[in-house]
């Protein structure tokens, strides 16, 4: 007989495999041959786990008769009873309980079998566990009881059974939330009603001070709000931020909830954030105004509702407030009027409405800036034009003496500069530092603004309070384009500032080689000296700019050669003149002889003369010694001064080096910020386009006609949502579209109406070129969603392509991941039209491809709108794990916390699949050593993709940052990962984005192409959950 303990794929024994598939005869045969019931696979699952998880009662019975261990735990700490309970297999639960399986067993997250049965609404399993005295008060690691989970997911049967066993309705989890909080927050009216019938406390507060009514109102669940109000829930309750339920409902635009609260006399005078205007919910604003809400109420920073509406550009709310005589002259704590707010953020519609209502264009904030200053500073040319049409003052000065033209020029906003110059804004205006607009534009290197100012005859000779000209500023900061433009207008290269520095000194001192070269080409004087006697060459050498110094040395040498030739010529003439001059004069005749004296007189005179000479020599020697001593002292002092100067120079050099490093770092930060701002602006443009998009409402009859009554011939997919069909003819509601994919909700589908509404809600406000658009929907008896038909998905082209298709090359894989990451970053970015959206089901099978290889991220049915993440909150917490096996972040599994990093983990796994060409679980195992750094990526990549080793290493480093690091703070943000992917793609010359004119609503699938819109959930064998899925 063969060895019955042999292991195959994933460490699974033959007994495990037949138990998982419920082959009773094979199980019995293996057990008769002593197969090991305790054998574990690579995930810690025993054969009993498999049989129980799939509900194969005969296999469970045989294993228990052979003493299979009911206490065995898998790698997540779950027992066979956990898995049987989670999947609602009552027969398996009963058999395990008969063998005294432990109802109190907890998995690694602290959940008991009763938690799992309640979470999934398996009423029969819940009842069986309770008959065995399972603990209704058991808490998991987040403090949630089984009643919490049943209520959160709206499983009324499980809630009823638990309440019959006196489950505690007042139990609080770690966040202080009761089961009633969770039921209300998710809008499960049946669960809310059952809890209220058991006197659940409507006044209970969670850790944020929110009551169940806050939760229901904030999420707009009208049914739950009505039930709570019928049970006298307190409409005046305040959370920690001072918000009442009315604040929450109005702040998120839930008009139905607002109406219900107002009918119960909720206090409209309650003061806090006036979020209904902030978020622009016109209906909520109208309802509150109809109830005489205080239109002059001040909230955070002293801002009125009109401030907030104008600040965020909500024209409808602005119009309503103005129609009700809102004060356009109101000032906040910083002196900003509503017109400042609208102009500063470029909301032209709001600016127009305020100006039509005589808003003051001369109003000044606490820094003396007018609305025109703010519009100009931020480059909102439309708002600038509107203000100027109302004669806003172009000569207005702020407290620093700057005009609107200064602000526009300093920030390089060409459109605003042009509009101001058309209104004759003064190019010669000086701020308090003596700077003209041209100084500002040149100093910051804004070539477009410099050009416009020069075309308007801005003065290139203007000097600031330090005597510097615009050319000084451009040269000092190395802005070659600005330097070139100024020199073309004959800016003076010989101009000196108050320290005697020329523009060449400035460029050389800061090491700007390009600017130095331009100045030298325009005959800048290399011999010019500043007040300290230094030339530009001296400055370059003193500050360690070797290349610039060499450039200046060569220029100086070239300039000095003609002069040296003249000096040499003059020296030759002088030498010849000396050689040919007249002879020296003859010596003078000797003096006449002296009178003779006596010998004594001569001796005495000689002795006297010699004595005087000795005295004079002594005096000369003493004087020379004094001079030498003074010279030595002076030399010592000079040496000390030189050493001190050298120390100062050394320290100055170090300071300059640090300054240079800081400046280079600041320039790098500025570059990244500029790139991020550009991406954000693109996303804002996309969001504004999305506001104008409409999604067609299509009748079920029209869809039936286009799919031959959803015939099998037109069925192209099956998933947890239901079935997917292709249309064989154009839809009348979408006359310009090609073939479409229609996803129809099955009656027994694992997803329900909530996911349908979630998908419609998200895609109605979100639009991006790499996000699969929703083009139509039907909410009749059989809900349907309609999308453009796609050609396939990334997983099918990377892991197991059809025979008639080749695997993707590495370039195609990088493009697809980059495109999907672009869509994710867009979803994560809060815009005026949308909040943060977390996808929560990112995987290659949800990255769809058109015929040109462009990728679009699909399937947002499990997405979560997360406005909380816009207010400093770093993560959200849930008891209900959402996602697909292999792509769920372990940090999410362990703590229930999810955020943008959760989607980042999934995109990291997807990129790893592209590297290895294997499934999620298999590829992580294969790349383990490479991820740890002990192996090269090239040794384990998919050979069919032909990854270049250096590109594979770059991609693997991105994967490490996204999913391999175990602490959130060390994970790479998705926006940074996108930057790295963009850099990698650009370096390799990959196509930048959508190509070949593919339109969102066009057909990109040929006949025979297949759609890949299947929803991969933990569903195997008609709804059973696999034990590996937690």
TrEMBL record:
Spans of repeat ANK: 10-42, 43-75, 76-108, 109-141, 142-174, 175-207, 208-240, 241-273, 301-333, 334-366, 367-399, 400-432, 433-465, 466-498, 499-531
Biased composition, class Basic and acidic residues, residue ranges: 605-624, 631-640
Pfam families assigned: Ank, Ank_2, Ank_4, Pkinase
Extent of Pro residues compositional bias: 583-593
Annotated keywords: ANK repeat, ATP-binding, Nucleotide-binding, Repeat
Residues covered by the Protein kinase domain: 710-985
Binding-site residues for ATP, renumbered to this chain: 743
Region feature (Disordered): 558-640
GO MF terms, alphabetically ordered: ATP binding; protein kinase activity
Protein name (Swiss-Prot/TrEMBL): Protein kinase domain-containing protein
């Amino acid at each position: 007989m063969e060895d019955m303990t042999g292991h195959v794929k994933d460490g699974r024994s033959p007994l495990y495999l037949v138990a998982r598939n419920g082959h009773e005869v094979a199980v019995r045969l293996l057990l008769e041959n002593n197969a090991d019931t305790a054998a574990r696979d690579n995930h810690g699952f025993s054969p009993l786990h498999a049989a129980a998880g799939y509900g194969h009662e005969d296999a469970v019975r045989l294993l228990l008769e052979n003493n299979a261990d009911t206490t065995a735990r898998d790698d997540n700490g779950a027992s066979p009873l956990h898995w049987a309970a989670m999947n609602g297999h009552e027969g398996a639960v009963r058999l395990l309980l008969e063998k005294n399986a432990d109802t109190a067993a907890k998995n690694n997250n602290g959940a008991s079998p009763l938690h799992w049965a309640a979470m999934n609404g398996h009423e029969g399993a819940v009842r069986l566990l309770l008959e065995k005295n399972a603990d209704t008060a058991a808490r998991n690691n987040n403090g949630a009881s089984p009643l919490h989970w049943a209520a959160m997911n709206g499983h009324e049967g499980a809630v009823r059974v638990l309440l019959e066993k006196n489950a505690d309705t007042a139990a609080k989890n770690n966040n202080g939330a009761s089961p009633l909080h969770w039921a209300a927050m998710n809008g499960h009216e049946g669960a809310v009603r059952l809890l209220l019938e058991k006197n659940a406390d409507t006044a209970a507060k969670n850790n944020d001070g929110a009551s169940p009514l806050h939760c229901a109102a904030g999420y707009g669940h009208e049914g739950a709000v009505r039930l709570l109000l019928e049970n006298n829930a307190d409409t005046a309750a305040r959370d920690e931020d001072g918000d009442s339920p009315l604040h929450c409902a109005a702040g998120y635009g839930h008009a139905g909830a607002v109406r219900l609260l107002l009918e119960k006399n909720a206090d409209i005078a309650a003061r806090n954030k006036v979020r209904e205007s902030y978020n622009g919910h016109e209906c909520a604003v109208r309802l509150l105004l109809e109830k005489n809400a205080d239109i002059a109420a001040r909230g955070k920073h002293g801002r009125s509702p009109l401030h907030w509406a104008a600040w965020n550009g909500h024209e409808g709310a602005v119009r309503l407030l103005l129609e009700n005589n809102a004060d356009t002259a109101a000032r906040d704590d910083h002196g900003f009027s509503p017109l400042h707010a609208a102009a500063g953020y470029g909301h032209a519609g709001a600016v127009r409405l305020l100006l039509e209502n005589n808003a003051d264009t001369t109003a000044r904030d606490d820094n003396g800036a007018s609305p025109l200053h703010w519009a100009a500073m931020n480059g909102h040319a439309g708002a600038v034009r509107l203000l100027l049409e109302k004669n806003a003052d172009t000569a207005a000065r702020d407290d620093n003496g700057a005009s609107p033209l200064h602000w526009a020029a300093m920030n390089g906003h060409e459109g605003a500069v042009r509009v101001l110059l058309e209104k004759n804004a003064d190019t010669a205006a000086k701020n308090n530092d003596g700077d003209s607009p041209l100084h500002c534009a040149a100093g910051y290197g804004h070539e477009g603004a410099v050009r416009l100012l020069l075309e308007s005859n801005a003065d290139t000779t203007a000097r600031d309070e330090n005597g510097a000209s615009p050319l000084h500023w451009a040269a000092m900061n190395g802005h070659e384009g600005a330097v070139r433009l100024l020199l073309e207008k004959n800016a003076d290269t010989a101009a000196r500032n108050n320290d005697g520095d020329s523009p060449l000194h400035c460029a050389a001192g800061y090491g700007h080689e390009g600017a130095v070269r331009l100045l030298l080409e325009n005959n800048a004087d290399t011999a010019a000296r500043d007040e300290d006697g230094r030339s530009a060459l001296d400055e370059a050498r003193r500050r360690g700019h070797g290349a610039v110094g060499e450039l200046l040395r060569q220029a100086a040498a070239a300039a000095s050669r003609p002069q040296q030739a003249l000096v040499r010529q003059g020296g030759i003439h002088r030498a010849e003149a000396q050689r040919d001059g007249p002879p020296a004069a003859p010596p003078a005749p000797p003096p006449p002889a002296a009178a003779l004296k006596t010998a004594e007189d001569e001796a005495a005179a000689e002795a006297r003369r010699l004595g005087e000479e000795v005295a004079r020599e002594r005096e000369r020697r003493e004087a020379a010694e004094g001079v030498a001593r003074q010279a030595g002292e002076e030399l010592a002092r000079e040496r000390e001064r030189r050493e001190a100067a050298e120390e100062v120079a050394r320290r100055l050099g170090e300071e300059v080096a640090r300054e240079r490093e800081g400046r280079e770092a600041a320039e790098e930060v500025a570059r990244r910020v500029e790139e991020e701002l550009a991406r954000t602006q693109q996303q804002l443009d996309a969001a504004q386009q999305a506001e104008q998009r409409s999604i067609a409402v299509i009748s079920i009859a029209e869809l039936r006609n286009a799919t031959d009554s959803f015939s099998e011939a037109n069925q192209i997919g099956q998933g947890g949502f239901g079935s997917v069909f292709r249309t064989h003819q154009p839809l009348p509601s979408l006359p310009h579209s090609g073939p479409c994919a229609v996803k129809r909700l099955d009656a027994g589908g694992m997803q329900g109406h909530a996911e349908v509404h979630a998908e419609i809600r998200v895609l109605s406000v979100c639009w991006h070129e790499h996000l699969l658009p929703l083009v139509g929907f039907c909410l009749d008896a059989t809900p349907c969603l309609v999308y453009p038909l796609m050609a396939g998905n990334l997983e099918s082209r990377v892991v197991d392509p059809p025979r008639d298709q080749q695997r993707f090359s590495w370039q195609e894989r990088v493009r697809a991941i980059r495109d999907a990451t672009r869509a994710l970053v867009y979803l994560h970015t809060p815009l005026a039209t949308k909040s943060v959206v977390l996808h929560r089901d990112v995987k290659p099978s949800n990255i769809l491809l058109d015929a040109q290889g462009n990728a679009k991220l699909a399937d947002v049915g499990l997405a979560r709108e997360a406005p909380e993440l816009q207010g400093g909150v770093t993560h959200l917490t849930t008891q209900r794990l959402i996602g697909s096996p292999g792509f769920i972040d372990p940090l999410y599994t362990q703590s229930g916390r999810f955020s943008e990093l959760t989607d980042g983990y999934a995109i990291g796994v997807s990129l790893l699949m592209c590297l290895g060409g294997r499934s999620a679980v298999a590829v992580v195992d294969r790349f383990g050593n490479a991820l740890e750094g002990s192996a090269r990526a090239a040794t384990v990549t998919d050979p069919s993709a032909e990854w270049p080793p250096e590109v594979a290493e770059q991609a693997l480093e991105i994967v490490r940052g996204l999913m391999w690091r175990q602490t959130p703070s060390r994970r790479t943000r998705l926006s940074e990962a996108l930057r790295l992917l963009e850099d990698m793609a650009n370096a390799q010359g990959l196509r930048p984005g959508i190509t070949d004119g593919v339109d969102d609503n066009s057909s990109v699938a040929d006949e025979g192409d297949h759609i890949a819109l299947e929803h991969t959930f933990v569903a195997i064998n008609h709804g059973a959950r696999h034990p590996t899925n937690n």
